[in-house]
Amino acid sequence: QVQLQESGPGLVKPSETLSLTCTVSGGSISSYYWSWIRQPPGKGLEWIGYIYYSGSTNYNPSLKSRVTISVDTSKNQVSLKLSSVSAADTAVYYCARRGTHYDSGTVYYYMDVWGKGTMVTVSS
Amino acid sequence: DIQMTQSPSSLSASVGDRVTITCRASQSISRYLNWYHQKPGKAPKVLIYAASSLQSGVPSRFSGSGSGTDFTLTISSLQPEDFATYYCQQSYSIPFTFGGGTKVEIK
Prior knowledge:
The structure holds 2 protein chains of 2 kinds. In chain A, 0% of the residues lie in helices and 57% in strands. Chain A is mostly beta strands. In chain A, the strands form 2 sheets. In chain A, strands 2, 4, 5, 6, 9, 10 and 11 form a 7-stranded mixed sheet that branches. In chain A, a hairpin with a 2-residue loop joins strand 9 and strand 10 (106-114). By secondary structure, chain B is mostly beta strands. In chain B, strands 2, 4, 5, 6, 9, 10 and 11 form a 7-stranded mixed sheet that branches. Chain B has a 4-stranded antiparallel sheet with strand order 1-3-8-7, with no helix packed on it. The termini of chain B are far apart. In chain B, 38% of the residues are buried. The chains are: A mainly beta, B mainly beta.
């Protein structure tokens, strides 16, 4: 059974770069898309972006100028970097696998496996 | 961006009740609509994808319906483990967006 585990610093200073890693175990990173999603304390969910195992990416335009998502297939890891952080970036950060469902020639996507999430606080 | 609006934002219900949550998209998204629930301190978990397909392992008391802009999640008989926050999410276009959530509480 595929499991995802996020890791990285729990505290980042304002204006610095947030760096997180998602390690995939129990399965291969290949042939899937991998997303990052975040959730500020007490608030809703925000999709940050995704990456295909081949390296192609798609980002939320609201964060695109500050986000980089990368993949290391040899380590079965996906990474997130978010630059120039502020208090507004304080959140639980989740990685998730994008599942695919085919129905009458139409492809549907959903996040079918999630990590437990990691809390990142931006504060000096 | 496609805006997803859920209602109600919260509700109180008893074990055994039938519960309905609605989600409205700001434009047509066909059936590109997923439902998740999230318990405190836990990651979201998918319940329904493609508007009405039940994720493997999810109890059959959960069902989804709708297409276009209006969608519904129904819990036919609320169980103690169903008290959580429910989110809809569109996968029609980038950026994927979520509804604001519906918190289901014990009456």
